[in-house]
């Protein structure tokens, strides 16, 4: 395969959609050069990282995301505005948990793959991944903005739990609509060019540009603006700072940690998306030796994006002081349901009388 045909192939296919040896396809099978050995090492490293994620990060993320959702939804009365956003991100994390094993156990990420999937499955996985990424990024962004509103205007209805639940509904709706607008480009990119209407839309770079702008640039600017406002509020000490109705101070640390971690984990993916759109797809890479490194970084960045599905609930579990109390109340209720808790019922009746 020549370099020219290889670059033409890249214009059509996603680098991380190809089989496990995608990073070595520019070399001959009998090649023993240093670049080829490095290419094979990249494949081995990626396989090991994928298996580590599946054995450690995937079960932890699945358990903690389910726990976060169940504990908060079982204590709806005590839920605060940040809790609603973290539940929203946990649900998106569960969607990523659904996508991750399908991709990581395929030949895309590991040499010891279990299955292969066709273009239809690939497009479905891509849409679910894009929806989850948009929900996570915009939930983090609106959490920052609502936290500023809560700091500046305590007891306001604008950042209430009721309104936040509706906002989260709009986030999912907007993510689905945005993803399906990009879906048109991806679908037309995989079907026959005989359809005139679709052949005009065969531009995967346009879909990647939409995701780059809406999924990363807009949230990054909004979070930066929110942090500037929050820092300005913190410098101005007012009597409202002692208001008992304000959010727990630990929420501020949780907010900073969650925003930083989300952007650290998702930035490499969007940066490689930008490089693919601006540099790789137009064919500006003139040497085949750089392609394996790019492929490797692209897939590692997607693996980091998957990691956000377990990093966020772990942080929430460790930094939210009220989570342990909610979990204990839930366990007591489950225990009482099995044991009928006659003592607690009698004490409650005495208090009522």
TrEMBL record:
A GO cellular component annotated for this chain's UniProt record is: plasma membrane
Main localization category: membrane
The membrane topology term of the UniProt record is: Multi-pass membrane protein
Q: Which domain of life is it from?
A: Eukaryota
Q: Which PROSITE patterns match?
A: G_PROTEIN_RECEP_F1_2 (PS50262)
The keyword Transmembrane helix is assigned to this record: yes
Q: Which UniProt keywords apply?
A: Cell membrane, G-protein coupled receptor, Membrane, Receptor, Transducer, Transmembrane, Transmembrane helix
InterPro entries xref list: GPCR_Rhodpsn, GPCR_Rhodpsn_7TM, GPER1-like, GPR146
Provide a Gene Ontology MF annotation, just one.
Answer: G protein-coupled receptor activity
Q: Which Pfam families match?
A: 7tm_1 (PF00001)
Membrane-spanning residues:
44-71, 83-102, 122-145, 166-187, 210-233, 254-275, 295-316
Q: Where in the numbering of this chain does the G-protein coupled receptors family 1 profile domain appear?
A: 64-316
State its location(s): Cell membrane
**Descriptive protein name:** G-protein coupled receptors family 1 profile domain-containing protein
Task: Give the species this sequence originates from.
Answer: Oreochromis aureus
Taxonomic classification, please? Eukaryota, Metazoa, Chordata, Craniata, Vertebrata
Gene designation per UniProt:
GPR146
């Amino acid at each position: 395969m020549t370099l020219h045909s290889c670059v033409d192939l890249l214009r059509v296919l996603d680098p991380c959609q190809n089989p496990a040896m995608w990073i070595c396809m520019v070399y001959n099978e009998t090649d023993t050069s240093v670049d080829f050995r490095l290419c094979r090492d990249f494949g081995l490293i990626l396989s090991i990282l994928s298996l580590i994620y599946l054995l450690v990060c995937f079960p932890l993320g699945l358990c903690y995301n389910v726990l976060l959702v169940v504990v908060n939804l079982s204590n709806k009365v005590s839920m605060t505005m940040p809790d609603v956003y973290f539940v929203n991100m946990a649900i998106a994390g569960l969607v990523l948990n659904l996508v991750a094993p399908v991709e990581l156990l395929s030949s895309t990420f590991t040499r010891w793959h279990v299955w292969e999937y066709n273009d239809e499955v690939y497009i479905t996985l891509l849409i679910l991944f894009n929806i989850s990424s948009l929900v996570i990024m915009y939930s983090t962004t609106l959490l920052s903005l609502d936290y500023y509103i809560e700091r500046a205007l305590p007891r306001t209805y604008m950042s209430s739990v009721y309104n936040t639940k509706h906002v989260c509904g709009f986030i999912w709706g907007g993510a689905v609509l945005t993803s399906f607008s990009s879906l048109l480009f991806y679908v037309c990119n995989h079907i026959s060019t005989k359809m005139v209407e679709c052949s005009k839309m065969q531009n995967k770079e346009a879909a990647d540009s939409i995701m780059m702008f809406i999924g990363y640039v807009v949230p990054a600017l909004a979070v930066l603006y929110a942090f500037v406002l929050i820092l300005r509020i913190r410098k101005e000490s007012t009597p409202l700072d002692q208001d008992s109705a304000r959010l727990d101070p630990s929420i501020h640390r949780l907010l900073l940690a969650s925003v930083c971690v989300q952007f650290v984990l998702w930035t490499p993916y969007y940066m490689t998306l930008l490089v693919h759109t601006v540099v790789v797809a137009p064919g500006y890479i003139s040497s085949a030796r750089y392609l394996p490194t790019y492929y490797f970084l692209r897939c590692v960045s997607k693996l980091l994006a998957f990691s956000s599905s377990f990093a966020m609930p772990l942080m929430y579990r460790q930094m939210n002081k009220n989570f342990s109390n909610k979990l204990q109340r839930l366990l007591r209720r489950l225990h009482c349901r099995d044991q009928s808790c006659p003592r607690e019922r009698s004490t409650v009746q005495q208090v009522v009388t």
